[in-house]
Design a protein that fits this description.
189 residues; mainly alpha; 0% strand
């Protein structure tokens, strides 16, 4: 029971950190103003890891449209999460003397777990953004949050809108995307 609680707490902390790094990369890619919310929150949560990544990356990579420092930060955070969970499970399963088992043979499993966590967080952040956009579009269209969520989700919804016609004046692309994102989460799970 204790290990499940500790893993849950780690997962929650790293979900926020990884999600913020991915959201920072997405917002920078879309050229969304980072001086307004949620940009200020995202920058406050991720500056400690993204700024050093910017100094490490080559100049050509750092100047591309994709914010590779934020993407790399999200991957490093995913890797740290996978390593901490492996250590936690190893400590509880075999005691401290068994930590020598974390060797190079475990590296592919850690990389796979980190990639899985990164993809899961990306899908969940997209799911929350699309769900919030769909709700706000019914409750308070035209508000500042509606415009922001529209800019964040438009690149995801536009391909579906070209294929799925509006039925009775209702755009069902958000519903279809939510279903696809949920299926993606099920496949990852």
């Amino acid at each position: 029971m204790l290990i499940r609680i500790l893993v849950f707490l780690l997962e929650t902390l790293f979900f926020v950190l990884i999600g913020a790094a991915l959201l920072r990369a997405w917002m920078n890619y879309l050229r969304i103003n980072m001086r307004a919310q949620p940009g200020t929150f995202v920058m406050a949560v991720t500056d400690w890891i993204v700024k050093p990544m910017r100094r490490v990356l080559p100049q050509a990579v750092a100047q591309s449209r994709v914010d590779w420092a934020s993407v790399l930060a999200a991957f490093v955070l995913s890797l740290v999460f996978a390593l901490l969970v492996a250590l936690l499970i190893g400590v509880f399963a075999g005691g401290l003397q068994d930590l020598s088992g974390l060797n190079l043979m475990l590296l592919p499993a850690l990389l796979l777990a980190a990639l899985k966590m990164l993809l899961r967080v990306a899908l969940q952040v997209a799911f929350v953004a699309v769900l919030a956009f769909a709700i706000i579009s019914w409750v308070q269209p035209g508000s500042a949050i509606y415009v922001l969520l529209g800019r964040l989700t438009e690149p995801l919804l536009a391909p579906l809108r070209r294929v799925i016609p509006a039925i009775g004046g209702v755009d069902l692309s958000a519903l279809v995307l939510l279903l696809l994102l949920q299926i993606g989460l099920m496949v990852l799970g």
